[in-house]
Structure formats: C-alpha cells, structure tokens
Amino acid sequence: MAAELAGGATAGSGAELAATFAGRRVLITGHTGFKGSWLALWLHHWGARVGGFALPPETTPDLFSAAGVEGLLERHTLGDVRDFAALREAVETFDPQVIFHMAAQPLVLRGYREPRETVETNVMGTLNLLEAVRLREKPCAVVIITSDKCYANREQVWGYRECDPMGGDDPYSVSKGAAELLVHAWRRSYFPPERLAAGVGVALASARAGNVIGGGDWSENRLVPDLVRAMEAGEPLVLRHPLAVRPWQHVLDPLHGYLMLAARLLGRDAARFCDGWNFAPDPGDEWVTVGGLAERFQALFQLPAWRPDPLARPHEASMLRLAIDQSLVRLGWRPRWNVGRTIERTARWYQAFRPGVGAMRQACLDDLTDFLGEAPSPAPFSQSPHSSNLPDSP
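User: That's the sequence. What structure does it adopt?
Assistant: Structure tokens below.
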C-alpha cells in the first residue's frame, strides 16, 4: 500500500489528512447524492483527483448542482451500480487508489414501496463494486458506507457496537445488513488483511452512520428537507414518528470519519483498520427526538407547530443509537459539532440558499472551513457497558 500518513500518526488533523489525499485518485460511487457531493467537494478542496460513478441527481434542487460539483471532478460517469459491466469499466478506467462506495437506495419508506430495487441496489450494487475491485487485482483502499440501520434493532437504549449482529425488519435495513455481511465475507475470502503487510492487496473496511443532516439535502421523507418544504409552502410539518430517537449529526462529522478511516487503510498498519466502524454523535451529546429536532428548526424557520401524521405508516425503529467507543479509541475520531451546532449550521445553509449551478459552493466551503478549524468538544468517554475490553489507542 501507499506510504504512512504524512508527518506521522496524527490521523485526524486536517493537515495530515489533506496531505494524504492530495494528488490521489479517489473514486466515489454515488457522488451525485447528498453525502457524495459533500465528500467530493471536500476531497477536491484537499487536492485529490476525484472521479465519480452515479445516477443523475434525483431531486430538484440538488446539492451536486447547487455546489457545482461536476466542474470539480476529473471524471464524471453516469451509471447504475446494478450494471456490473459499466461499474467495472468505470473502476478500471479511473484506476483509483481509494474508493468510497456510497451509491445506494437510501430511504426507508421507499424501501417498502420498492423492495426489489432497494435490495438490488444496496446488495447487488455492493457486490458489483467488490467484484470490480477483486478482478482489477491492484492495491486499493476501499470504504463501503452502509447505515446505522444495518444492526438487528432491539429498541435498546444503549448504542449498538460493531460486533453486534446484523439484521433488519424492513427491506432497506436488511439490505444494509446484507451489504455488511458481503463486506465481511469478501474481506475474509479475497482481501485478507494479513496480505497488506507485504504491500499488496485491498484494504477493505465498512462505515456505519445515519440520520445525517446539513445543507443541500432535498430527499423525500427526511426530516430537514420536509421542514424546508413546509417553510416554502407556509404549512405545518407532518411527522410520522415524533417520539423516535435518532443519532442526529452534521454530514461533515461522519465524512470526517470516513476520510480518517481511508487514510488509515493507506498506512503501513492498514490491517488493523480492516473492520466495520460506527460514526455517530458523541455519547455526551443530548438525545433528541424527531419532534424535538423539528421544534428547534421551527423556531429558526418561524414555522407553525408540527402535527402528527394521522395515517398508519410502515414500521420504523423508535430507538436507534450507535456506540462509537471503537472509533474514539482506535481511530482517534470524535464528532466536532454537537446537535445544537449542527442545527444552527444546517438552518443557516438553507436560509442562504439561492438557485443556480455552483451558487452554494462557497456556503459549503465556509461550513467545511469552520468545521476543520474547530476542535472536538470533550465529552464523557463511553455510552456502552462493554467498552472496557477495547485496546489502547494506537
């Protein structure tokens, strides 16, 4: 694999990470989506040579256009991850040193409406990416992004750890759990971490996060985009599950974790990081329900009070939290923006929104600059009763 992190071992600092990715070819599947657009913008800001493979943006407006991301890419390929031949060609042609697999059907309710498409995209799309990497037979760092919903949800109050079983009670959740199982099997079968010591092989890891918010998301049936649409329409927001607890975090926090993880996979001790990783709010941050988050945005947007959805809706978990002890201790990652800061920055972005290609790029860069300039807030170490067996920090 490539050289150690520039300057040594402080993997989370902006300078070391920027030096790690500068000049590298980085392929993002799903780069036209909300998180993919933010990641492409960030990597370009750090001097990476960014390529993308994805479907066209699904919403109008969309962050990919609003931030002018296409103009920053070395290679922009439209395609479906279910099309193995097209995906393999994109991988072979761009010849990436790092891959972030983010292409997915990301919505729970659409999963109920379109279960076959959801499973094909999230499971077979992941398989196609893994096979394209295997058949390429070149060293590469690969981070597969799944979801916090990959775990078998028991509605427990403490966070799920990376060693907890995969599962899912709906098509979307089970598709993410299945994707994680594929990653595990392909790592054991084709990308064994012990080969990395000889400087060859694929360093493969997965990342689990969810309920990210931030400027530029206009997806259907997501809380903040629904709030923005309610603001534009001058109507009260309708909430499906106002008492549900979710691990809210700004989109930049998990992306920072993905970048730190990929940087470790490029280092000499990459084998230690070929695993699944949780990225979620700090255990010391406040718990916020769907209704509570809506009320805080309503105060900023001056919206009328939300009202509960009178219709019966498909099942969604009422309690979902992730334990981040492993990322805190082994990776050195910690969230930078608490929920209050996250709400403030997200609301500011939407309040500043104006249409036009590239019109919001500077707003994104302002968020990124401020994020990188702020140190993580101190908080109690563990939310998990099982954290005492973790190894020491590297």
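The first helix runs from residue 14 to 21.
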